[in-house]
Write a structure and sequence with these properties.
single chain; mainly beta; two-stranded antiparallel ribbon; 1 helix; about 50% strand
Length: about 120
């Protein structure tokens, strides 16, 4: 899927690949009761977190995507609109490597944030 990655100032075209993994935990929590049965606590889903795998056309584009991560919050959109507004946590990182005619950029430690 073709998308755009932006830090609010710069925008870069990227291709989101099937290596992207975002998980969303939470929802209901079941508590077994001493008298039998179950009590359920309902809560909203947690923000998505995981990793993004993007493809770009050149080494310069891969380095530009990596440099975007100096910004605290980035937005990933496609032609249909918002895909994800996220921050890269301190545990995460950015790496890139050649893959045929393109470069693959891996971003770990992705944490969804409220825009």
């Amino acid at each position: 899927m073709t998308a755009t990655l932006t830090d609010g100032t710069r925008a870069l075209p990227v291709l989101v690949t099937d290596g992207t993994r975002l998980e969303q935990h939470g929802g209901a929590i079941a508590h077994p009761l001493l008298s039998g049965g179950v009590d359920v606590t309902v809560r909203p889903l947690a923000p998505r977190q995981g990793s993004l795998t993007l493809r770009v056309e050149s080494l310069a584009a891969a380095q530009a995507v990596a440099s975007l991560h100096e910004a605290p919050i980035l937005t990933l959109t496609d032609g249909d609109g918002l895909i994800l507004t996220y921050a890269v946590t301190t545990a995460g990182g950015v790496s890139y490597a050649p893959d045929g005619q393109r470069f693959v950029v891996n971003i770990t430690g992705v944490q969804e944030v409220t825009p």
